[in-house]
What does this fold into?
Amino acid sequence: MQEAVFDRIARFYDYEQGSFTKDIPLYTGYAKKCKGEVLELGCGTGRILIPIAKENIRVTGLDISNEMLKLAREKVDKLDSELKIHVQLIQGDMAKFSMNKKFPFIFIAFRSFQSLMTKKEQGDCLECVYRHLKDNGIFILDLFAPRHDLLAQVNRSVYLGEFYDRENDVYITRRAEDEYNLASQTLKEDRFYEWTDKQGMFHQQRWSFELSYLFRYEAEMLLEKHGLLIEHVFGDFDKSPYNYYSGEQIFVARKV
Ligand SMILES: C[S@@+](CC[C@H](N)C(=O)[O-])C[C@H]1O[C@@H](n2cnc3c(N)ncnc32)[C@H](O)[C@@H]1O
It folds into this structure.
């Protein structure tokens, strides 16, 4: 099987992002309100899926990366047996999946949708979402909000801070070289993980990936084209409205 982009850094993922929790209440809140089984596309290591399962809600997670799913499975295995049976993890592509059930709530968190690089893949994904949503079901999509001043720099070097690698008892620093392609609306990032081990040896791991970016009305039109009617556009996980400097664009749409 072909290696997925996130396979290469799966082991770092929870050290890097595990402390980011402020989006979780939004998803658990909708999961409770929608009553029924939830589907997360691009569920990764289960950062959000596990808290949903802990609310005693049935949840299915789909991800293309086996390494990310392996970590999610380890967490599922640690759940109490009555919660564990409510979680299903599936390896698959969010742009072409088919299950013989429908969900009242589907979401794609933390920019996972932006790994889909073409309009075709994005459209195919939303078609799959539509087919798997129950009538009146809710779909949430979180994208980063592109800013013209950052895009205009075209090339940027960014220091991303450090995190603690518990497994090896070292601090790992992260920096990135970003390149925006304004015509294709894509971002290519070379991310460098660097650390010095206990023997004083320097290590560097390079991770390259690409993301697409969408502006607010493009995303709204794309969703509405696929039968997903916008109910809210939030700029933060506390449900404050979107504004240009929000950082996030969180679309809450309903299947009509
Ligand atoms: C930024 S991580 C987010 C993981 C998790 N949702 C979270 O919030 O921590 C993006 C995830 O999307 C997955 N992904 C990327 N492209 C995908 C695709 N075409 N189909 C399914 N999953 C995909 C990656 O493997 C990765 O686990």
Summary: The domain at 148-212 is CATH 2.20.25 (N-terminal domain of TfIIb). Residues 4, 6, 17, 41-44, 47-48, 62-65, 68, 93-95, 109-112, 115-116 surround S-adenosylmethionine (CB under 6 Å). The chain has a mean pLDDT of 96.
